[in-house]
Amino acid sequence: MLTPFHIAVAVRDIDEARDFYGAGLGFSEGRSSDQWIDFNMFGHQFVTHLNASIGPQGSIASIANEVDGHGVPVPHFGVVLELDQWEAFAETARAVVSEFIIEPYIRFKGQPGEQATLFFSDPSGNALEFKAFRNIDEQLFAT
User: Where does the VOC domain lie (predicted)?
Assistant: First the structure.
């Protein structure tokens, strides 16, 4: 059994994070204050912490590494989902995200590690990836 991860990221505005992650993406809220919010991201503890110095456009520094012909932002984080969960989440994200870094698609088609993936940034500039495999146990670490 996998254990839940915990990740904390900086956001420029707590109410904006609540709207984006909670109301928009549907992650339920746990404990919170005016400085941070715990969200349930597919069973994992995802925490947003206020950092007002990020500014209005978001300024999380990143680089892009080419993977399967796309510029993948680094750093990024996210969750590996079952394919049906990913398909449903991709539809939710399409309704919430104004611009994808990488639109939902199948990466490494016909190769070991074939996966569904999508990338977007939150309003503070944090890059997220959500991916899925047809068989997680066999494909997650395929070489």
Answer: 3-133
pTM greater than 0.70: yes
What single DSSP character describes residue 42? T
**By the 8 A CB rule, do 105 and 116 touch?**
yes
Please give the Cα distance from 91 to 93 (Å, whole number). 5
- Please report, for residues 16, 37, 57, 107, 127, the alpha-carbon distance to residue 101 in angstroms, rounded to integers and kept in the order given: 20, 25, 16, 14, 8
Encode pLDDT of 86-141 as tens digits: 999 999 999 999 999 999 999 999 988 899 999 999 999 999 999 999 988 888 88
- Containing domain of residue 107, as a range? 6-139
Residues 48 and 58: beta-carbon distance below 8 Å: no
- Could you give the count of Cα atoms lying within 13 Å of 45 in the half-sphere of its Cβ? 11
pLDDT digits 0-9 by tens, 49-87:
999 888 766 555 577 788 878 888 889 999 999 999 999
Domain for residue 49, yes or no?
Answer: yes
In a domain, 77, yes or no: yes
CB 47 within 8 A of CB 54: no
> Dihedral sign, CA of 78, 79, 84, 89?
negative
